[in-house]
DNA sequence: TACATTTTTGAATTTGAATTCAATTTCACA
DNA sequence: TGTGAAATTGAATTCAAATTCAAAAATGTA
């Protein structure tokens, strides 16, 4: 099972290039001075702030430039159009999900728990700190096919990497590659609704609960663990979601 | 656990009204003749076709009217703007998810499997037949808060309804209401990525596999079952996903 | 300090699609 | 078959936002 690391890495690089190409396809003026570089960065930062405030679909070039405190016309000195700017900002943001999760690959289920936790904690943190960016990412995934493909690949890669050394352990050990791929793809979206609900839309009863980021990550990790191994995760891993621990004890 | 049926129903009706209000807020001319009613329906049908072909964000009023074979200006005789039309079309579409899943509520885990299967099969079918509509629904959920809230509620309702009579059975029996709510919310998105991948974007290796709609529904139902009950579903339920059955036999 | 390069300005222009509208056709019913 | 109400047309208009541009300011360098 699981693609060779090099193969997956290449795939990722190609996807990254494709998505970046869209952002850079139209001739962008490279900055020609330190001042220019600062101004460009300033626009990108302003874009992030505006994204959090206004949201992608309502955001206009004028909004970004006003937030940046620069003249509207200057925008075109640095970016060809709004979408390219947003795409570039999102690609920067996406890199936070790209890095290795842990140095050591997990060899046992218990070890996997820690890797999974790191993976989910990173995601929870992103939703909590940058709900607007996460939302924009979701929206852009629909609008720009290449970007969507890239994001999916980044997450698949994290996921596969974390499970790479575990093929023999647990109940899924003797599934075929294709079966495993399907299951992982289906489990990849576990928690999405919950996170969107709790950190972005904040309408439901759940969003009224007070759940720490670490507890949230424990909830999600243990749910994935349960779904994948059909077992309870080790009790001692529940460090923040005390209520989950209590529940597990009653088994 | 689980809200009373009436309470949940009211909540749903309010959300439906809210979402519909957006679609109807701007004064819409009611049709005043049979011919008018036909024309209006024609526009809605054309909208669905155009949505499948072009997608929501690229679609223009002119596109819809051309597809309908009517003059552009006539649009305003029937709808105030494009978003209202799309919203109305989506609300019609959404009603396919609103109905009761089965007449008898599930009383045992095994019975739940059937309810769950019906639930998932309905969703799989929708993705398979109307990928454009499903995509548009997702996009609109981000754009129109009230619509998003409604869609979530519709699906939560189906889910809660299917599990209503099961509180005591299985490992989740002694979870608190809040815990259960969190878990269900998190599990609510199981399979999303897979379905989007397989029926909408069609880029990954998974989309090259040939999976029947019934097999897909079995995959998802059994995955939910495993995640929720930490058990394999009854072997005899696997009627189309033969490979899954084989795998389960090896346990 | 002079001068070429780069950055900056914001008003003027362009663009593409939404929206209006006056004129025409169709329809339903007496 | 005549009449008023409703539906239909598509060219003209409006609109909001993107885009351009000529001129001014800032910058770095010799």
How would you describe what is shown here?
2 copies of one chain form a homodimer. Chain A is mostly helical and 251 residues long. Chain A has 2 domains: 29-79, Orthogonal Bundle (Arc Repressor Mutant, subunit A), CATH 1.10.10.60; 94-237. Helices cover 66% and strands 0% of the residues of chain A. Chain A has helices at 5-24, 34-54, 61-68, 75-78, 82-94, 109-129, 131-143, 145-163, 177-187, 192-201, 213-229, 242-249. In chain A, helix 2 packs across helix 3, helix 2 packs across helix 7 (131-143) and helix 6 crosses helix 7. The model of chain A has no long low-confidence stretch (mean pLDDT 90). Chains A and B meet through helix 7, helix 8, helix 9, helix 10 and helix 11 of A and helix 7, helix 8, helix 9, helix 10 and helix 11 of B. Chain A binds a DNA duplex (30 and 30 nucleotides) through helix 2 and helix 4.
